[in-house]
Design a protein that fits this description.
- The complex is a heterodimer of chains A (245) and B (323).
- Chain A is an alpha/beta fold and 245 residues long.
- Chain A has nine helices and nine strands.
- Chain A has one domain: P-loop containing nucleotide triphosphate hydrolases (Rossmann fold, 3-Layer(aba) Sandwich), CATH 3.40.50.300.
- Chain A has a six-stranded mixed β-sheet with strand order 5-6-7-3-8-9, sandwiched between helices.
- Chain B is mostly helical and 323 residues long.
- Chain B is built from 14 helices and no strands.
- Chain B is globular and about 65 Å long.
- Classes of the chains: A alpha/beta (245), B mainly alpha (323).
Chain lengths: 245, 323
């Protein structure tokens, strides 16, 4: 099996505090990988290290066969990242925002691709409206369009459903589910909302205080814990286990 | 980097605060130039124009007119342009959440900071060029003086000097926008430093000089005392970018000016001065003026480069998690 992301004892410390603690995990090509854990578990920090935006204090990582420390640009041109609180230039239109990101990727004269991507996320009709007027759900989908415009092989979505209404969450998850099938890319999805991740993820990793508690398909984890196929229960099981130890 | 520069330029040209500051400077400069060219006309009409030979056109920039010369005006209010262009360069992007998005695109971090800096410099260069050309044409029409090639050259170097001076303030503002998280804080810090350096440092220098070098007899100061006080004054003024700008612009635009040293002027006030005046006949050549202002010019350039390097290093070494 080909891995698109592999980490070996990846560690990040800020001062004395260890945010990511000897994290070793593998993500397979074409899957939706759920990154689970409460706030402050080190999910975002791990994603930043995988992108080469933050330097690991120890261990190493490989993304698409490249080392983020030495080849961040090569990784960033093939990996899309949707930050947790993505921002836009409010006085620019949706299309202008998207064009700026495309320009930064040195992708010029791709009007068809831009239109196609905006259609995919359902924003084509409002492409000439200022982003300041967009709802949270629309902004999140525009963020996804900005991630997809570079035709990535791998995307990181950091809490993509945070702050969305039920409708927005449903649309977002539907979109995310389609990506591996239709565009052949791998998705790493970080969230603390378990039921959402359970709906779309093929495999999950449970993180707490920077440490990996468990990793596998939801079924595997359920079997191991002798539980129903309910991620909430599994999650609680692993957390209790951690506390007992 | 081209994409960043292009976007920043578009942003600046459409931003209300830049247009406001720029139009304010244009209006006041226009008024000043108009008054100055009236003064020039009077002098020309009185027939004493040998005195002005070779620097008539530059008088538009250096004559006092009704309030103060344009060079002094630019020294005091030019900084505002640089500050307005830079004080929210980084922290606004951070606050609206676009910084982490930009940094996750395949560009080096250097390109972000360089793009923003150069976009600011380009704006300043365009604004100054437009201002000088407009003022020059006003002089042509209003006073009817045609600039000599040397005057044009002097003006061009003055343009460069202004660019470096305002570039220093731009770099300083960008440093504040990196260091301070809040846009309001960096705006306040920029304004405070502007007032301190542009208005108080020169006064402070004089006060300091008076304290360090007391005069035994203020009515008839001894030459040594004057020289010592002058040295302290000079030293302090070399710490202030505004002082440096003032000194070099005076030397550059007024060929009859021989440096700002009081002691030198006192020493040469009598017969020697007369001899010197006869010798130079109306003023220093361009090469001599440049040589005279070179130390100030270089220190000012050093200031500009220093603020840029500080901005560059703090930005490139900042932890992204905090972004």
């Amino acid at each position: 099996m080909e891995y698109v992301v592999e980490t070996y004892e990846l560690t990040k410390r800020y001062g004395r505090e260890t945010v990511v603690d000897r994290l070793s995990l593998q993500v397979r090509s074409g899957e939706i990988f759920g990154f689970l854990g409460p706030n402050g578990a080190g999910k975002t920090t791990t994603l930043l290290m995988l992108l080469g935006l933050s330097e690991p204090s120890g261990g190493r990582a490989e993304v698409l066969g490249l080392d983020p420390v030495t080849k961040p640009l090569k990784i960033k041109s093939q990996v899309g990242y949707l930050p947790e609180n993505i921002g836009f230039y409010g006085d620019m239109t949706a299309l202008e925002n998207l064009t700026y990101v495309a320009d930064l990727n040195r992708l010029y004269e791709i009007e068809d691709l831009k239109a196609e991507t905006l259609r995919l996320v359902g924003l084509y009709e409002v492409k000439d409206r200022q982003v300041a007027t967009f709802s949270r759900g629309m902004r999140q989908r525009l963020g996804l369009a900005e991630v997809l415009i570079k035709k990535p092989r791998l995307i990181f979505l950091d809490e993509p459903t945070l702050g969305l209404d039920p409708d927005g969450i449903a649309t977002m998850l539907e979109l995310i589910e389609r990506l591996p099938r239709e565009m052949g890319l791998t998705v790493i999805l970080s969230s603390h909302l378990l039921h959402l991740v359970a709906r779309v993820a093929n495999r999950v990793a449970i993180l707490k205080k920077g440490q990996l508690l468990a990793m596998g398909t939801v079924d595997e984890l359920a079997e191991e814990a002798n539980l129903n196929r309910d991620l909430e229960e599994i999650y609680r099981f692993y957390f209790k286990k951690d506390i007992r130890e | 980097m081209k994409a960043i520069i292009r976007k920043e330029l578009a942003d600046h040209f459409s931003s209300a605060r830049f247009l406001f500051i720029a139009s304010l400077i244009f209006m006041i400069s226009f008024l000043g130039a108009h008054l100055a060219s009236q003064g020039i006309q009077e002098v020309l009409a009185s027939g004493s124009n040998e005195l002005l030979a070779g620097r008539t056109f530059l008088l538009i920039f250096t004559s006092t007119g009704a309030f103060f010369p344009l060079t002094v005006f630019l020294a005091l209010f030019g900084p505002l342009v640089g500050l307005v262009l830079g004080f929210d360069a980084i922290n606004r992007e951070r606050a609206q959440g676009t910084l982490s998005k930009i940094l996750s695109q395949p560009i080096y971090r250097d390109e972000v900071i360089l793009g923003k800096y150069f976009a600011g410099l380009i704006i300043v260069a365009i604004m100054l060029a437009a201002l000088f050309i407009l003022l020059g044409s006003l002089g042509l029409i209003g006073a009817g003086v045609v600039p000599t090639p040397e005057e044009v050259l002097r003006l061009f170097i003055f343009w460069l000097l202004c660019l470096i001076y305002i570039g220093f303030w731009l770099g300083l503002a960008i440093v504040f926008s990196i260091v301070f998280r809040s846009v309001a804080t960096s705006a306040l810090a920029s304004a405070a430093v502007w007032i301190l350096i542009a208005f108080f440092l020169p006064v402070l220098g004089q006060a300091l000089a008076q304290v360090i070098t007391p005069m035994t007899d203020p009515q008839r100061p001894a030459y040594e005392e004057l020289a010592r006080r002058d040295m302290v004054n000079q030293l302090v003024s070399k710490v202030s970018p505004t002082g440096l700008f003032n000194q070099s612009s005076l030397v550059l635009l007024d060929p009859t000016h021989r440096g700002s040293s009081q002691a030198f002027q006192t020493a040469t006030s009598s017969r020697i001065n007369q001899l010197l005046l006869n010798h130079f006949q109306g003023g220093l050549s361009l090469g001599q003026s440049i040589a005279l202002m070179m130390p100030e010019f270089l220190i000012l350039t050093g200031f500009m480069v220093a603020t840029f390097i500080v901005a560059y290093l703090t930005f490139v070494h900042q932890e992204v998690r905090s972004i």
